[in-house]
Design goal:
By secondary structure, this protein is of the alpha/beta class. The chain is built from 14 helices and eleven strands. The longest helix is centred in the first third of the chain and has 16 residues.
């Protein structure tokens, strides 16, 4: 009884002290972020300054580049997206974190280690040493002193199947963008089981954030895992936010509007979104354009899509306008939650 009273008083006092402009403020919002790739890790980089109760739920379908090679060679889950999330949530901002993200570059441009990220190799080593990818993630989180948890949506090894509108079909996440045709449907190669800790985190969450990230290859694969959508829909207390991408993605979502993104999420996860965060600022030119390629920022000029609330905000990274500014995005997400509550 005394413990419960102290906890209630503590929460009341923190609410009295709460200053949304204070970057050092930490609330106890149980937050689940679902996705993969650069989008998810970028969100985590910002949201870790707003709450310490974070669970990242990461896709396991990556089969390209360093992750794909290690996945195939060692028969483990693809480590790349997990590496990015672990680094993003790390409290260690110095050498250790930088080494974890370091990529080997041989002088010849060839060799077994060339272009492999050290963190990918590390996760492969720990998986063999401890006998499970689950334990490798746990120990890596301890080493990097991460805020929260990084979980896979499933522990099963599985691939994406993509059916295009012209009837073509491919297997493998990395092949989808290469085809560069309008996508009809995404599915999985086999029946799998959701990771129980991911399901529990969703059930207990007060805030669920889907995205940002590659729509068909980072976000939707998680929603295809049996039990994930059911758990999101069953959680009635949480605010559920979909973060729409800043820009369309070459070979995957070219010519798609914000409304198209929302409709696609609703197709795979109906009744799982309360609000959509949409960038309000369009940047057509930048000094970095030659590095990042063509920019096709998207926005929306209405306050709702099919009854779902649209939150317009300047959340763009002006120096890299294909992506969100993680601090601005994190603030917008927490502002949405506070207004909701």
């Amino acid at each position: 009884m005394i413990h419960k009273t102290k906890k209630l008083v503590g929460r009341w006092w923190r609410q009295l002290k709460y200053d949304p402009s204070d970057p050092n403020y930490y609330d106890e919002i149980k937050t689940v972020a679902i996705g993969g790739g650069t989008g998810l890790s970028n969100l985590l980089e910002g949201i870790k300054h707003k709450t310490q109760k974070i669970t990242a739920i990461v896709t396991v379908c990556d089969d390209g580049s360093s992750s794909g090679e290690i996945r195939k060679e060692f028969k483990i889950l693809p480590p790349g997206d997990f590496r990015k999330c672990l680094a993003a949530l790390s409290r260690k901002n110095g050498t250790l974190r930088n080494i974890f993200e370091y990529r080997f570059k041989s002088r010849s441009g060839e060799g077994d280690l060339n272009d492999h990220a050290f963190g990918n190799i590390w996760l492969a080593v720990l998986t063999e040493y401890f006998g499970s990818f689950e334990k490798a993630l746990e120990e890596s989180g301890n080493l990097l002193d991460i805020i929260g948890n990084v979980y896979p949506s499933t522990l099963d090894r599985v691939d994406l199947v993509c059916n295009f509108r012209d009837g073509k079909r491919v297997i493998g996440e990395s092949k989808i963008a290469e085809i560069n045709k309008p996508i009809e449907k995404i599915s999985l190669t086999k029946k799998i089981k959701a990771y129980d800790k991911s399901i529990k985190a969703i059930e207990e969450a007060e805030l669920i954030v889907i995205g940002p990230g590659s729509l068909y290859t980072s976000i939707i694969p998680n929603l295809l895992v049996p039990g994930i959508v059911k758990a999101i829909r069953a959680n009635k207390k949480a605010l559920k936010i979909f973060v729409c991408n800043i820009s369309t993605e070459r070979g995957e979502t070219e010519n798609l509007s914000v409304e198209d993104h929302v409709k696609t999420i609703n197709r795979y996860a109906p009744n799982c979104i309360d609000q959509v965060i949409v960038n309000s600022r369009i940047i057509k030119k930048t000094s970095e354009a030659h590095k990042i390629g063509e920019i096709n920022n998207i926005t929306y000029n209405s306050d709702k899509i099919n009854g779902i609330k649209i939150v317009l905000a300047d959340v763009i990274d002006k120096n890299n306008p294909l992506f969100h500014d993680n601090q601005k995005l994190a603030k917008t997400v927490i502002d949405c939650y506070n207004q909701y509550k």
